[in-house]
Every structure is written in C-alpha cells, then in structure tokens.
Design brief:
This protein is 50% helix and 11% strand. With 323 residues, it is an alpha/beta fold. The C terminus is likely disordered.
C-alpha cells in the first residue's frame, strides 16, 4: 500500500536529512578537524576570537549553507550557488585580507574541500557554481577504496601525468620533443625524462649524441631522502664527467598534505581504471553504484586540477648537470 502524498514527501525529506547529517558527521566535520589540527570539541573550548576557532566556525557555516542548498534546492536564494552568493549568505562571518575578495576566498576553500570530499562539486566554467550532493549510499561504499594501497610507483605515475599534462607531452615517463632555440631560431631535439634523479644510473644523465636532455625530478622521495640528495647526485656527476648537454630540474618537495592528496589520487586512479570499480562497488545496487562512481570521478577531477595547479605554481630550483 502506498503512502499518502504528504507522508511520502515527509519520508523523502527525512531520508535527505539523514543523508545530509551522515555526510556532515562522517566526512565534513573530520575534514574541518584535519585542517584545524584538533577535534571540534577542542575548537569549541577555545576563546571566541581565537583565529583557529574563527576559521573553523566560518568554514562550518559555509559547509552547512551548501548542505542546506542541497536539502531545499528549489529555494531561489539557494539556487545556482556561486562563490559570490555563498559569501553573501555568510556576510559578516567571512573576512578576506583584501575587501571584495571574499568570493575568491570561498572558491579556493571549496576547491580544496572538493578534492577531499567528492560530494562537493564545482562546475568548470568562467562562472563556476558550487553544490553538494546527497547520495543515498552509506559509508561502506566509500570505505571500500581503503583496500587499494598506494605505492611509490602509483604516486610517481600520477605525478608524471600531472607534469606531462602541463608540458603537453603525450608520453609521461620519457619523451622526446622538438623545440626552437631563441637565439638562432634553430629547431633542436630535446629528450625529456621524468624520474628520481637520486635513483637514476649515471648513464641516464648523459644525452645521446648531440641532443639535449632535460631530467625532471619528482617533487617527493622516501622519508629518508630530501632534494639535497638529488643535488648531491648531480654534483657527483659533474665532478667525474666532462660537461654534458643535460639540465636537471629539482623542485621543492611536496609537504605532507599534498603527498596525502597524491596518495588519494593514486588510489582513485587505480579503482576507476577499467572494470575495477565494478568489483569494489559490487555490494551496491545499480543506482547507488552510478552515484558512487560520479562522486569518485568528481573527487579525482578536483585532485588532478589541484595537483596540476601546484605544478604550475611550483618554484623550481633549476640545477644543471652540465652547461
């Protein structure tokens, strides 16, 4: 027997509210706690004007506004939630260092959250909109991805793809491409190699024939090694060899937060490749499986964008094996 229309609508709202509460408690609050470096109870015990408490409270209100928009999307004030509208709805709680930059500050924070929580979606356009989805699938669906392990190889592969996307090269591991010299307008062949300079054999630092070789080091290594170890490898090569047409680019290494993002991206790339997702989501029905894949695809896309942006904005320390 079907429920009366009024009771059916009430039941739907209860389900949506439960999903919103589950998303908030299981994903969004832990996200804010990680950023604050302490539990919500500890933040609440701080003074009201404490910078950490102010930031936590402001971000919490932004997130709750997005959840409210997901619960009642038909309300005009909550439709097509842009960064400017989200900032305006939280007027007085969000303060940007430069007046008038509140919308950009909101967009930056939401993009960061979207890389950690797939339910936060940002449309890619000149005038992006932000929304939060409330899937009906449980925490079990997303927790299955923890079974996939991140390895240094998968992390390196993701970093290679990010670098190669920036350089528009088709082969991320090792590629040759033509370029033009500014001084003579002569077209020269340059071989570009991605790899951990510290681990490369010495012969890899030598170009073939009259070609130039550019070696791009990864912005990370094992915990026992730093960028200084790569520099030491280059200096050792210089001291024992004749000058070679090789440039080694050693970037400043990623911090722990970015490495965590890289690990998450590696896991998502593994799960979403080919038919693997079907195995990880076998416990879900067809509708929930589609919703789960959409969320993971969204999170993967946001993480890729974030890492590519980091590569572009990276301060590269250019060290040459020889000139």
């Amino acid at each position: 027997m079907s429920l009366p229309r009024g009771r059916a609508i009430t039941e739907d709202m209860r389900i949506h509210f439960d999903n919103a509460k589950r998303l908030y408690v299981q994903k969004l609050v832990p996200l804010l706690e990680r950023e604050a470096g302490m539990a919500r109870e500890q933040v609440q015990a701080l003074a009201a004007n404490d910078p950490c408490a102010v930031r936590f409270r402001t971000d919490d209100r932004l997130i709750k506004t997005l959840l409210l928009a997901a619960l009642v999307p038909e309300v005009d004030a909550l439709k097509n939630m842009t960064p400017r509208r989200l900032a305006a709805l939280n007027h007085g709680t969000l303060r940007a260092p430069i007046a008038g930059q509140e919308a950009q500050l909101v967009l930056t924070r939401c993009r960061k959250w979207a890389g950690d929580v797939g339910e936060i979606k940002i449309a890619r356009s000149d005038h992006p909109t932000i929304r939060s989805s409330l899937p009906a699938w449980t925490r079990k669906a997303s927790s299955r991805r923890r079974e996939a392990k991140t390895t240094s190889g998968t992390g390196a592969a993701c970093s290679k793809r990010s670098c190669s996307t920036r350089s528009e090269s088709a082969r991320p591991t090792s590629c040759s491409c033509g370029t033009s010299s500014c001084g003579t307008a002569t077209r020269r062949s340059v071989e570009v190699v991605f790899g951990n300079i510290r681990e490369l054999p010495e012969d890899s630092l030598k170009p073939r024939g009259d070609e130039w070789r550019v070696i791009i080091d990864f912005p990370f290594d094992s915990e026992r090694h730093q960028a200084s170890d790569d520099i030491a490898k280059i200096e050792s090569f210089r001291s024992r060899n004749e000058p070679a047409r090789t440039f080694c680019w050693v970037p400043h290494f990623f911090g722990h937060a970015v490495l965590r993002d890289l690990g998450t991206l590696a896991v998502l790339e593994y799960i979403l490749k080919g038919d693997r997702f079907q195995d990880y989501a076998a416990h879900l029905n067809a509708v929930d499986r589609t919703a789960a894949r959409s969320l993971l695809d969204n999170q993967r896309g946001q993480l890729k964008t974030r890492l590519i942006t980091l590569h572009r904005g990276r301060v590269w320390r250019a060290d040459t094996a020889a000139t």
